[in-house]
Structures are given as C-alpha cells and as structure tokens.
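Give me structure tokens for this 317-residue protein.
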Amino acid sequence: MQIKYMIAIIVLLGVISIYLGSLSCLDQEYTAFNKQDLNNFSKEEISFKYPNVFKLENSTTNNFTVNNYISKLINPYENEFITINRQYNPPGHDPKNFIIEEWNGSESKIDLIDNKKYTVKNTDVYDNTYKLKNDSSMLIRELWVYKNNAVYSIILTGKKSNTIDLIRDSLNIQFTSLKEKFIFATLTIPKLDCKWDIRYDTVNAINGVYHYNISSYPGEKGTVGLLGHHVTYSAPFKKLDRLVKGDKVYINDFLTQKKYTYEVEKVATDDIKYDYETNKIQFDKKSNGLIMGTCWPPGYTTAECYCHCKLISVEPI
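Here you go.
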C-alpha cells in the first residue's frame, strides 16, 4: 500500500511540475511579447512604429474603389488586423462634422464608446473607439488625420486596442502633393441591380453619380444629395421611380471606411419639382438622410424628381 501511495504522490508531483512549467513558459512568452522588437511602417509620406507580430500584407493603390486601403497589417496569432488608408479630401468635407449620433442607433452594427482628439507632431489626430454589437469583445480603434488635403485613417479591428496608442504616438505624416481623385464612394441599389461611383466633380461621367456640393457627405451631420442622369452617361437613375418604400440603398464611403445603409421612405414620384431651376432642392442639415434626384419624366428635363431615404445602419466596410 505504501508503495502505491508513493507512486501516486510521485505522479501527482510530476503533474504539478509539468503544470508549473507550462505556466512558466506562458509567462516567458507573455513577457517576450511585451518586450518584442518593433517594426517601422513606411509608405510614401506615412510612417509609424508597430509590433512585429503584425505582418504586412501585399496591397495596391491602382484602383482605390476596389482596394480601399493602401496597406494592411495582419496579426496571424490573433483575430486582428490594421488597415492604412488615404483618400483625397473632397471640397467641403469637414472633419469637425465627422461623428454623427446615428452611429449609435438601434440598427447600427457599431457603438461609438469613445472619441478623443490628440496633437502629435503639431498635427491633430482624431481617435475613435467602437465596439461591434454582434460581438462586444471586438473593438474598432481608428486614428484620423487631415493633412496634405487628404483624409488619412489607420484602423485596427480586434480584441486589443493598445497597439493604436503606439502607432498614434509614433505617427508621422510628411507634407506632400497628392493627385486629386474625384471618386470617394460607391452607391449600390440591389432593387435596380446597379452599382455606381460617387464623384464630386461632375454629373456628366460614365458609371457615376454626382454628389451635390451643397449637401453633406456620408458620416457628416446632414443629408447626402446625389444627382444622376436618366438617359445619358450610363443613365444611373433611369429606374429611380421604381424604388418603393422600404427598399434598401447602400453607400460604401472610403473617406470614413464605413458602409451606410439607407431605406426609402418617400418615392421619387411623390416629390416632383417643375421649378427645380429657380426653387432648388434643399438638404436638411439636422437629419441624416439621402436624397437621389434625376430629371422627370424619363427622356425629358421638364422637372426633377427626388427619392428620399433615411439612414438606418452604419458598419465598417
């Protein structure tokens, strides 16, 4: 019996030894992770420090409407990644109006839980933190900078957000001259099976609709206004009058890296202006909606009709 007890004690001590050893290894790994070397991200005018656990993914800037980030960092050991974005800032886009209350609406996919403003190397940096409603353990941490007539964003998605503090404190954006890009978002209307570029320079462009320069941009406080042809230049709004109440409209905005979901609440044929040239359409600065306009009736320019939508959801692209 004594031998059996001794064997049992030896086995138990062995198990305890292995367990303590594993804890020691985990502690060493944790310590090593916190003392790991840092890598330096540098691409054109942007540079910052980041933990070398993140790996740089190949990316491109050839077509920013498809690849809406210039670089991406991925942590292969955790479910987290960082996108580094840069878009030309269109006229009238105001960073002071960037946060909107509706991002915390009941149907939005994200909740804004913190937003701060820092000054790093004499540059204003906006720092926003969100949590995903369908997974409260997942956070989105964003850094926004307006410089070089461009909008820069560094966005981390994951369960840890302190990496962004390191990036923010080491962030450096040099002055440079950027090539203007007129397309800043896309419009998708599933009911009409169409997808168009949203641009701010002209309505007379193939595969595009025009953003009214007196209206708000997605992500700003106020109503977004879009104008499209109904016969020429790809006729993006030739079937606008077919939309009915409840139909969904989506804007993927590369300036804010967000997807905005709208729902039709007033059909185009219920808002027709025959004096549209002298009595121009107005855009409410207090509500966050979307108005899409085109000429009426189809084939003529006798009047303009407007489809009104309300914002119901915001989520990351």
